[in-house]
Amino acid sequence: MTHDDSEALRPKNAPLSLLQKLGWGPFFAEQADASVMAETPPVRVTEVHRSGHHVVGEGIDTILPPRPDATVGDWILLNAEEPAESVVLERKNLIKRRAPGPERQVQLIGANLDTTFIVTSCNDDFNIARLERYVALALEDKASPVILLTKADLAEDVESYLSQARSISADVPVLAIDGRGEEPRERLAEWCKPGKTVAFIGSSGVGKSTLTNTLSGGQEIKTQGIREGDARGRHTTTSRQLHLLVSGCTVLDTPGMREVQLTDAASGLGELFADLQELSTQCRFRDCMHESEPGCAIKSALAAGEIGEARLERWKKLVAEDAFNSESLSPRRARDRTFGRIAKQPKKKGKK
Ligand SMILES: Nc1nc2c(ncn2[C@@H]2O[C@H](COP(=O)(O)OP(=O)(O)OP(=O)(O)O)[C@@H](O)[C@H]2O)c(=O)[nH]1
Ligand SMILES: [Zn+2]
């Protein structure tokens, strides 16, 4: 789905540097002068712990003091003398959700992703409404969603899972796979290229760590056996972690999320439900709630059987939820914007 010239520009057979394998490229390089980079070399956040951020770069593997403004996948210009003064570079994108709990905080899931694999399994975990949330979340930040239906080997009717998932959006590829064995390596190769960063997100037990293991060919993450008679696996992944594969692709494995609440996802929702959004512009009232207002284009389309009721209800629910969460988070957004300006400071004159 995404196009990128970096492959074409690289001379054939030139090996990627460690930084390039980690995902470094012009988008980040343009944010700082060579002199700034010589003093504060770029590093990528591979893991976030309470005690600090694990970062890796050319000849660098260290822990920075914890900072709430950086997350896994971020690029940082490392100030070795004053680590807390290190600067986070502007992101290509950032996947976030509203964290569960009363604080309504934004949880940063991962930054600078080329592909977001939304993982669910062909069993009780499969839920259209939840998949739509994940897709909207990824679309919002142009983090190219791909839906992966795991445990296809255990399901009797894989086709029905496939067709339901495909109904979400014509633009989102859907694959049913057995996450173990050789299959993922071949079928995900299109996205898992050297220098690319891919993420696995989804509920606990759907096979995210298994996929990371399969792609890496290694055994660095332990997965535990699924419980007998229980569609959900056990919780095994505790922190978000970037894994650099031998192939030169970087994989973000995330712990299972029980709930995804949208925040600041209006454009992602608009993209996912473009037909309904477009239709609603034809309602007589601009603030039509599509309930009982006269001249409601949505209601007319529903009555004419042109749109499905279940999907309409999901759209209304998600739009309301996103508006609510985004509203109550606006002070935090203002802070993020301020932060974005600070992050751009190392760049000198006129480059944009
Ligand atoms: N049969 C089958 N089993 C799978 C498949 N994918 C994963 N499993 C099994 O499902 C269980 C859970 O897989 P994990 O990879 O640990 O799941 P996870 O999504 O990483 O879970 P959390 O770390 O808790 O978020 C393990 O026993 C895997 O072997 C698959 O495609 N087919
Ligand atoms: Zn209406």
TrEMBL record:
InterPro entries: G_CP_dom, P-loop_NTPase, Ribosome_biogen_GTPase_RsgA, RsgA_GTPase_dom. Binds 1 zinc ion per subunit. GTP binds at residues 150-153, 202-210. Residues 326-352 are annotated as: Disordered. Residues 103-260 form the CP-type G domain. Zn(2+) binds at residues 283, 288, 290, 296. PROSITE patterns: ENGC_GTPASE, G_CP. GO terms for cellular component: cytoplasm. Pfam families: RsgA_GTPase. Its main location: cytoplasm. Its EC number is 3.6.1.-. The keyword RNA-binding applies. It is an enzyme of class 3 (hydrolase). The keyword Cytoplasm applies. Keywords: Cytoplasm, GTP-binding, Hydrolase, Metal-binding, Nucleotide-binding, Ribosome biogenesis, RNA-binding, rRNA-binding, Zinc. GO terms for molecular function: GTP binding; GTPase activity; metal ion binding; rRNA binding. One of its GO terms (biological process) is ribosomal small subunit biogenesis. It is found in: Cytoplasm. Its cofactor is Zn(2+). Residues 111-258 form the EngC GTPase domain. Belongs to the TRAFAC class YlqF/YawG GTPase family. RsgA subfamily. One of several proteins that assist in the late maturation steps of the functional core of the 30S ribosomal subunit. Helps release RbfA from mature subunits. May play a role in the assembly of ribosomal proteins into the subunit. Circularly permuted GTPase that catalyzes slow GTP hydrolysis, GTPase activity is stimulated by the 30S ribosomal subunit. Monomer. Associates with 30S ribosomal subunit, binds 16S rRNA. NCBIfam families: ribosome small subunit-dependent GTPase A. This is Small ribosomal subunit biogenesis GTPase RsgA. The gene is rsgA.
